[in-house]
Amino acid sequence: MSGDAVVTEIDHDEFNPRGTLALILVYFAILVVMWVFMYFVEFLGNDLTVIG
Amino acid sequence: MHIHNYEKIWLVLAMIMIVGFLTTVTYGATAVGIEMISDEEDTIDPGALDEDPRFAEPRVEQVGENEYEAYVVAQQYIFSPDPIEVPANSTVTFYVTSPDVIHGFQVAGTNANTMVIPGEVAKLTVETEEPGEHGIVCNEYCGSGHHVMEGKLIIHPEDEFEMEDDE
Ligand SMILES: [Cu+2]
């Protein structure tokens, strides 16, 4: 890299970190699945739940 | 301050998740009726359990048409009574206490689980459904025999269950 020629200049909104967004959506999906599974399936589905 | 659109997306998702968690727990506590085990039971003299009408003779008692109470003593290194026998499709309230050290009372594989503290009475109500057998384990280290401290909960089919008269 020579470093003397700026090829393009973009501002804040023009830079779109798509990979980061995709990663976060994947994390979110994993968390939602785990949330539903752990609470509604594992916890509520486990007989002898304390009700009093 | 200027926030990038992508950042807005994940900020909103994080908020949705927090609200979702809170909603889920609220749903469990209200619609499903999940309760926490409290310390509202009166305290008791752990050295005088044999003078307590509930714990002098650990047992299961029928208190309503389909309601039972189990008075359970957890001590180094047994649970009494053992086994605890109750019918299916009934409401069972466990009162558990200890004369010596802290124990745990966990019906293995279920959500029925509490600490057992000397001087305190842990009260937990559950609804039994299917007949079957569950192990009960002590899940608080209570001494050299902790690993062998176990009991059993037997849920009998309703039509086969009969309370024995006072032994
Ligand atoms: Cu123990």
TrEMBL record, chain A:
Keywords on record: Membrane, Transmembrane, Transmembrane helix
Membrane spanning residue stretches: 20-41
Name of the protein described by the UniProt record: Cytochrome oxidase
UniProtKB/TrEMBL annotation, chain B:
InterPro entries assigned: Ba3_CcO_II_C, CcO_II-like_C, Copper_CuA, Cupredoxin, NosZ/Cyto_c_oxidase_sub2
Domain Cytochrome oxidase subunit II copper A binding span(s) in chain numbering: 65-167
PANTHER family named in the record: CYTOCHROME C OXIDASE SUBUNIT II, NITROUS-OXIDE REDUCTASE
Domain of life: Archaea
Gene Ontology cellular component terms for the protein in this record: membrane
SUPFAM superfamilies: Cupredoxins
Membrane in keyword set: yes
MF terms (GO), sorted A to Z: copper ion binding; cytochrome-c oxidase activity
Compartments where found: Cell envelope
Major site of localization recorded for this protein: other
Organism: Natronocalculus amylovorans
Residues that span the membrane, as ranges: 9-29
Protein name: Cytochrome c oxidase subunit II
Keywords: Copper, Membrane, Metal-binding, Transmembrane, Transmembrane helix
